[in-house]
């Protein structure tokens, strides 16, 4: 065998060597002295203008069973985990051994724990035509407060939805830019398209790194289409994208205000004047006050006879109650927070708590002991995250869709 460094024709030599390899050793020793000088002589005397011989095609190699293609998978699971100390403050300087992760009840080995900026998409419902408690002004104030409390470096985007879906502000780390967009672009509408908004949000969040994906949904949870099958698909897409969903729901506020404004039976000492009474007050303004006081001494029972509107209100209230159930479930499953405020005053501190939860999160990674390559289509694996040290409190999503990266 000839080394390349010693002979420029080593490759050719090796080919000939291979061709005669089946002959006895003494035959090879006789052939080599003849073949190599002959080749060198041919190269030396070949004219410059001679036609270059066509190279022989390389034979197609036969791939044996031991040489089958090997697919390389990224076997890493990424999950966001909120961590607090006993006082409820952000826990700092966590190490992998501080976090315990169980997947389908099997203890996993945590590879890394780190903090990276979050990507927060505000999804704002401005279509509250049936909810007297919903207002663009209130939603704007709550969203602005939440953005202001996020950590520097977090990226924020905002979308509004009513009878149409609109990107109010694209991804940016400039919080003031998003706040300005909210002040100038939020408008009220009708017939909210919540399902369409959720699907769009899931798609948009797939553009950002896993473990940092958050939706803050401010809504009553009611979609004008009321299509349960499509809603199921929207939730599936959010779960598949491993998004953390946070919710502030207007439902209870709306029900309270509807019931106050539209009681079935109203007992009062006030009633609207009729035309005859109005004419009398105009002709005798001096006696108007006396007559009004006399009317106030009477008790009036007013019965709401607008059955159509009452039926509409009842259906809406039922829809908000149903929405609160699945919104709460979605938030808990994805590791987020869900609030159903009983008054408008409660909404501001709830926004503060969501911002704090987002910025208390660490990104935890581990390699699952049951490989992702073995997962079935859209397989959902249950996870449980616990604290590995005393004084640490953690909160995380309950599972993830196993998918090869």
Description:
The protein has 405 residues and is α/β, with parallel strands linked by helices. It has 4 domains: 55 residues, no CATH class; 93 residues, no CATH class; 199 residues, 3-Layer(aba) Sandwich (Rossmann fold), CATH 3.40.50; 36 residues, no CATH class. It has 11 helices and 16 strands. The protein has a 6-stranded mixed β-sheet with strand order 7-6-5-8-9-12, with helices on both faces. The relative contact order is 0.17. The N terminus is likely disordered.
- What's the total helix number? 11
The total domain count is 4
Q: What is the ordering of alpha helices and beta strands?
A: HHEEEEEHEEHHEHEHEHHEHEHEEEE
Give the oligomer, counting copies of the same chain as homo and different chains as hetero.
Answer: single chain
Q: Averaging pLDDT over every residue, what do you get? A: 81
Helix content: 25-40%
**Adjacency order of strands in the biggest sheet:** 7-6-5-8-9-12
CATH class group of the largest domain: Alpha Beta
Low-pLDDT sequence parts: 1-73
Features:
11 helices, six-stranded mixed beta sheet, disordered N terminus, four-stranded antiparallel beta sheet, 4 domains, Rossmann fold, alpha/beta, 38% helix, 405 residues
Task: Give a topology summary.
Layout: H1 10-19, H2 25-45, E1 77-84, E2 99-103, E3 106-107, E4 110-114, E5 119-125, H3 136-148, E6 155-161, E7 165-172, H4 175-185, H5 194-205, E8 213-219, H6 228-240, E9 244-249, H7 251-261, E10 265-268, H8 275-283, H9 285-296, E11 300-303, H10 307-334, E12 338-339, H11 347-358, E13 361-366, E14 380-387, E15 393-396, E16 399-401
Parallel strand pairs: 5-6, 5-8, 8-9, 9-12
Antiparallel strand pairs: 1-13, 1-15, 2-3, 2-14, 4-13, 6-7, 10-11, 14-16
Helix pairs in contact: 3-4, 3-11, 5-6, 7-10, 8-9
């Amino acid at each position: 065998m000839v080394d390349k460094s010693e002979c420029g024709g080593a490759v050719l030599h090796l080919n000939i060597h291979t061709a005669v390899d089946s002959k006895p050793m003494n035959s090879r020793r006789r052939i080599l002295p003849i073949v190599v000088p002959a080749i060198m002589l041919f190269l030396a005397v070949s004219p410059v203008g001679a036609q270059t011989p066509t190279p022989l095609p390389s034979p197609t190699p036969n791939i044996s069973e031991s040489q089958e293609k090997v697919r390389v998978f990224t076997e890493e699971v990424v999950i966001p985990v909120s961590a607090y100390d006993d006082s409820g403050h952000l826990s700092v300087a966590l190490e992998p051994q501080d976090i315990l992760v169980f997947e389908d009840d099997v203890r996993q080995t945590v590879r890394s724990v780190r903090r990276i900026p979050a990507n927060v998409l505000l999804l704002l419902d401005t279509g509250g035509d049936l909810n007297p408690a919903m207002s663009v002004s209130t939603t704007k104030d709550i969203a602005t407060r939440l953005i202001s409390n996020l950590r520097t470096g977090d990226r924020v985007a905002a979308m509004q939805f009513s009878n149409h879906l609109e990107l109010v502000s694209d991804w940016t780390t400039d919080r003031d830019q998003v706040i300005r967009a909210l002040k100038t672009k939020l408008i009220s509408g009708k017939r909210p398209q919540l399902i369409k908004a959720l699907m769009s949000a899931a798609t948009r969040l797939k553009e950002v790194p896993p473990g940092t994906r958050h939706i803050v949904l401010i809504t009553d949870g009611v979609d004008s289409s009321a299509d349960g099958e499509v809603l199921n698909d929207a939730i599936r897409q959010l779960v598949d994208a491993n998004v953390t969903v946070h919710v502030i729901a207007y439902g209870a506020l709306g029900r309270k205000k509807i019931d106050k404004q539209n009681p079935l039976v109203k007992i009062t000492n006030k009633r609207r004047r009729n035309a005859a009474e109005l004419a009398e007050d105009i002709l005798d303004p001096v006696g108007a006050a006396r007559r009004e006081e006399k009317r106030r001494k009477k008790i009036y029972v007013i019965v709401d006879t607008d059955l159509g509107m009452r039926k509409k209100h009842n259906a809406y209230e039922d829809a908000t109650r149903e929405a609160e159930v699945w919104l709460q479930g979605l938030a808990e499953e994805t590791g987020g927070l869900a609030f159903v405020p009983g008054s408008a005053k409660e909404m501001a501190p709830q926004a503060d708590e969501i911002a704090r939860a987002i910025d208390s999160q660490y990104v935890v990674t581990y390699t699952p002991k049951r490989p992702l390559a073995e997962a079935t289509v859209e397989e959902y694996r249950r996870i449980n995250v616990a604290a590995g040290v005393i004084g640490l409190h953690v909160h995380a999503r309950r599972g993830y869709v196993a998918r090869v990266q």
